[in-house]
Amino acid sequence: MWIDTHCHLDAPEFDPDREAVLARAREAQVAMQVLPAVEVANFDAVRALAHQHGLSYALGIHPMYVDRAADEDLDRLTDALAQHLDDPRLVAVGEIGLDHFVPDLDRARQERFYLAQLKLARRFGLPVLLHVRRSADALLKGLRRFEGLAGIVHAFNGSAQQAHAFVRRGFVLGFGGAMTFDRSLNIQALAAELPAHALVLETDAPDIPPQWLYRTAAQRAAGDRSRNEPGELPRIARTLAGLREWTLAETALITSTNACTALPRLKPLLGR
């Protein structure tokens, strides 16, 4: 059994064949997917998909969307969390965080939304799904203001020192398609060396395709597209298994257990 801890199943890339994507995931024994929202506009979509297909979801405002979000969207998030807190398929606040990679994003506004959403996570007793790109230290600074929060650091690609700082705070780190590239030496080293209890698997589908799905800029310009999907998770897991010298069965058990520890509401859903 596999758990995809980060999948944007509501993305328009899946509109033509979402049912087939889900069927391939089930065939690959991906028993659970966590569907994070990115803005108020897709809160209802991720919740509906989670209920329709026996999955789980998170509600939050992504740092790359805060520039187009209204200030009142934080109130809308508060209302949505309060309304759905008793929904067992709501497992986290996310996707939230900071993005210092994309130029021209308003960092002050990102930080304001990030801190406000950390406050909401603590208020409602939920873990968080953190977006991190060149922002690990800033994320950790924010977490120090809200002791006791934990969750998943999605698509981690920072230093070993930063990784251990998150782990000490009770977070687990998400590894996915980027780990499969031959040149991803830092990510592979982290996946190999971090404590076993700190690792979970993800696809970030339709994004971050693994090496076997990658298309060059020239291929993309010629119209050749690359779309990741949750059914790729077991093959992605083979890379982690090789790095850790685990069997695939061990990898599935360890990473699924870690996911349920990081997101405690997941475990009761797996028996449904």
How many β-strands, per DSSP?
8
Low-confidence stretches: none
CATH superfamily: Metal-dependent hydrolases
Order of helices and strands: EHEHEHEHEHEHEHEHHHH
Number of domains: 1
| Oligomer classification | single chain
Euclidean distance between termini CA atoms? 14 Å
The side-by-side strand order for the widest beta sheet comes to: 1-2-3-4-5-6-7-8
**Which percent range describes the beta-strand content?**
15-25%
Mean pLDDT equals 96
Please state the structural category: alpha/beta
CATH class placement: Alpha Beta
How many helices? The count is 11
- Principal-axes shape call: globular
In CATH terms, what is the fold-level topology? Answer: TIM Barrel
CATH architecture: Alpha-Beta Barrel
Q: Estimate the helix proportion, in percent.
A: 40-55%
Radius of gyration: 17 Å
What can be said about the biggest beta sheet? 8 strands, parallel
Pfam families: TatD_DNase (PF01026)
Organism: Ideonella dechloratans
Protein name: TatD family deoxyribonuclease
Keywords: Hydrolase, Metal-binding
